C-alpha cells in the first residue's frame, strides 16, 4: 500500500502571551493511503482540523515532520507549500464559499484558471458537474441551489484541476442526514473513478465508519486507527 501523506510525531502549539502555549497536537503520526477515503473523526476541539490544515500544507507543525508523496513539506517555504496546494490539493470546507456573483459553471471554471489547468476547461467543468449530479445546473447562481447542491458544486470545484488529494473539513455539518450520506457517497465515487485521495473530518456518528481508514483523534492525539472500515451507508 502506498501512502501519499505521512506525519511523524508532529506537535502543534499555539502561543499565548504570558502563559504556557496551548498544545493542540501531541506526537501525531498518521499514514494516508493513496486513492482512498480517510476519515479523521473526533469531537469539536480534538485537533482534527488543525491536523488537516497541517497535512494540507496550510499550516506547519511546531515539531515533527510531514511528507507528501515522499517530499517533506514541513520543511518547505511558504511559496513551496503554496505551489503544492495549487497543483496537487483541493479543499472543501463546511462553509462552501462559492462566489455568489458567478454561476455554477463559472465557480468551477474559476478553480481551473487559478491552478493553471491546461486542458479543455469547458469539457472538464461539465465532466465534474456530471460526476456530482449537477450537469443541469451549470447556468444557475449559487443562491438558487439548496445547501446540499451548493456543497456538491464545491466538491466539483475542488476536484476540477485533478488534485492528488482533496481535504474536506466537516463538509456535511450543515446538511441533513440523507444529504450528508449523498455527499459521502460522491466522495467514494470520486475515489473509485478519479483515483483521488480524500481526507475528511467529521463528528457525525452516522458517517464515522464510512472511510477506508478511520483515525480517531482525542485531545490532540491519535486514540485509534481502523483500516478497511468501509461499509455501505
Give short descriptive properties of this protein:
disordered C terminus; 233 residues; Rossmann fold; 6-stranded mixed β-sheet; alpha/beta; 5-stranded antiparallel β-sheet
Structure write-up:
- With 233 residues, the chain is of the alpha/beta class.
- The protein has a domain at 36-47 and 77-227: P-loop containing nucleotide triphosphate hydrolases (Rossmann fold, 3-Layer(aba) Sandwich).
- The chain is built from six helices and eleven strands.
- It has helices at 48-55, 78-88, 104-115, 121-131, 147-159, 177-194; strands at residues 3-16, 19-28, 31-33, 37-41, 63-68, 71-72, 89-93, 165-169, 197-202, 213-218, 221-227.
- The strands form two sheets. Strands 7-8-9-4-10-11 form a six-stranded mixed beta sheet, with helices on both faces. Strands 1, 2, 3, 5 and 6 form a five-stranded antiparallel beta sheet that branches.
- Helix 3 (104-115) packs parallel to helix 5 and helix 5 (147-159) runs parallel beside helix 6 (177-194).
- Residues 229-233 have low confidence and may be disordered.
Strands, helices and their partners?
Elements: E1 3-16, E2 19-28, E3 31-33, E4 37-41, H1 48-55, E5 63-68, E6 71-72, H2 78-88, E7 89-93, H3 104-115, H4 121-131, H5 147-159, E8 165-169, H6 177-194, E9 197-202, E10 213-218, E11 221-227
Parallel strand pairs: 4-9, 4-10, 7-8, 8-9
Antiparallel strand pairs: 1-2, 1-3, 1-5, 5-6, 10-11
Helix pairs in contact: 3-4, 3-5, 4-5, 5-6
Amino acid at each position: 500500500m502506498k501512502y501519499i501523506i505521512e506525519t511523524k510525531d508532529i506537535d502543534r502549539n499555539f502561543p499565548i502571551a504570558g502563559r504556557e502555549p496551548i498544545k493542540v497536537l501531541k506526537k501525531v503520526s498518521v499514514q494516508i493511503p493513496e486513492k482512498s477515503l480517510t476519515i479523521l473523526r473526533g469531537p469539536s476541539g480534538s485537533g482534527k482540523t488543525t491536523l488537516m490544515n497541517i497535512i494540507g500544507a496550510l499550516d506547519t507543525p511546531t515539531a515533527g515532520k510531514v511528507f507528501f508523496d515522499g517530499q517533506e513539506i514541513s520543511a518547505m517555504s511558504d511559496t513551496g507549500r503554496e505551489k503544492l496546494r495549487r497543483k496537487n490539493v483541493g479543499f472543501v470546507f463546511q462553509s462552501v464559499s462559492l462566489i455568489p456573483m458567478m454561476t455554477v459553471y463559472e465557480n468551477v471554471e474559476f478553480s481551473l484558471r487559478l491552478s493553471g489547468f491546461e486542458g479543455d476547461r469547458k469539457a472538464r467543468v461539465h465532466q465534474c458537474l456530471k460526476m456530482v449530479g449537477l450537469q443541469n445546473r451549470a447556468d444557475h447562481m449559487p443562491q438558487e441551489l439548496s445547501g446540499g447542491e451548493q456543497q456538491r458544486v464545491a466538491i466539483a470545484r475542488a476536484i476540477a484541476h485533478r488534485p492528488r488529494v482533496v481535504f474536506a473539513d466537516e463538509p456535511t455539518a450543515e446538511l441533513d442526514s440523507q444529504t450528508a450520506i449523498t455527499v459521502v457517497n460522491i466522495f467514494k465515487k470520486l475515489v473509485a473513478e478519479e483515483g483521488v485521495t480524500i481526507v475528511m473530518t467529521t463528528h457525525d456518528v452516522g458517517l464515522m465508519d464510512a472511510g477506508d481508514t478511520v483515525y480517531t483523534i482525542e485531545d490532540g492525539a491519535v486514540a485509534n486507527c481502523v483500516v478497511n472500515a468501509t461499509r455501505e451507508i
